[in-house]
Amino acid sequence: MSVLGRIGPFLTTAAASPVVADLFSTALWTGTGATKVITTNVDVSAGGAIWIKARSTPTDHSMITTATWSAGDNAVTYPNQTYVRQGYADYVTAIGSSGFTLGSNTVVNASGQTYGGWAFKKAARFFDCGTYTGNGSNRTIAHALTVEPAMVIVKSTTSVGTDWYVYHLDIAIRTYLTYFVKLNSDSFFLNDTTIFNGTRATSSVFSIGTHNGVNQSTVTYEWFAWAHDPASDGVCLAGGYSGNGSGSGPTITLGWEPQLIFIKSIGGNADWVLVDSARGFSGALLSPNLAASEGSTTILTANSTGFTLTTGDTRVNGTSGSYSYLAIRKP
Hints:
Blueprint: H1 3-7, H2 20-23, E1 24-30, E2 36-39, E3 48-54, E4 62-65, E5 75-76, E6 86-87, E7 92-95, E8 99-102, H3 106-109, E9 114-121, E10 127-133, E11 139-142, E12 149-156, E13 164-168, H4 169-173, E14 179-182, E15 190-191, E16 205-208, H5 212-215, E17 220-227, E18 236-242, E19 251-253, E20 258-265, E21 273-276, E22 300-303, E23 306-309, E24 322-329
Antiparallel strand pairs: 1-9, 2-8, 3-4, 3-9, 5-6, 7-8, 10-17, 11-16, 12-13, 12-17, 13-14, 14-15, 18-24, 19-23, 20-21, 20-24, 22-23
């Protein structure tokens, strides 16, 4: 089913036409164990996030956001873990206008190991991130996407053992407004009105409830939001589809060729899937909820207007399974 068919072209915006290459890129490198500059040609120094994962060895995923990072503090959180925000002097040691600098930490720069990194720049109609302090009451958090969010992720940075809670537009479209998924878990969608307050996000805010995982009084949280922009020049879309359990799976129409795709089963337990064109859609698979190294299962092929599932793997195309995705446009 087409994304535009599922969700509909209900958003319009006067914001400038996004330039994909300025907003997002994937960088690949081999670690050296010494200071290393990674060039992304995406300026996240004034706002944005960097996601890093080792490809050749099992390590945690790493999320660095300028909302909490500062030189000397080098703060990082781990999407597959429930840890609080950590600070390491040898992690990402600098963030500049065209990339970032790595220290010697083996999670991001072990000698001889291969890595992937994704840079997301804060910009209207694409991506936003920030922090807030919980107050224990139902409330809204402002974002600057100017369009409805495709996906919002919230994580406590100071409370031990808290999950990564994910709001997804496709789940809301299915009218399951009290449901959510977890980035650090393979669980299918879960029902709790106190997470996102049973409320659909808008072009200016998303809602949080009273749950300690998203809004405990005095606790600090970080959040990440990707846009759903079905305009002809949009660069990011959310949607959903039903699996058929076949190697000739459903074709998803985006209206453009993707370069990065997140997929999550919402009807059954299954690992998240993260694939991108830089590592090759033909087999280079990572799971945001796992520390596992890169897999070699081919799950889809991309084309000029979207992508087609090519496996009956239950992570992405189980018989009668329900799936949600987020895709970013290729330049």
